[in-house]
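Take a sample.
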Amino acid sequence: MKKKLSSLISIVLLAVGVYWLKGTGLPTKTPEENPPSSAMITLQFPTERYPQTAQHIKEAIRSGKSAICTIDREGAEQNRKHSLASVPTRKGYDRDEWPMAMCEEGGKSANVKYIAPKDNRGAGSWVSHQLDEYEDGTRVKFVIK
């Protein structure tokens, strides 16, 4: 009986923790949703903080780009090189990529849009900090509201 009660309490605490994390916008993962071989987390992007980046991600997803990013930090430099190759720099703007260069899905087929540097760099820093603890191969579903 004690073991069943302990298991039930663990399940309830896990559910409460997941509910709380989803409300904070922090990445969430539970063993039931994400087996180790194909870990998936959800990341609520802060649209109000980085509106241009959020708009670009929304547009790119609507046009058929993936909302899922598989973390591939080692491939980022090569992906960025491919995605930006045919997009010239423009004074006063950054070239924002979706999927991001750090995503396995990025690179040659990425959607690129000119946006304000402050928005682009702030968003990149925010995403990087949110995903620091996750290994390459982790799949991240971006939710943009």
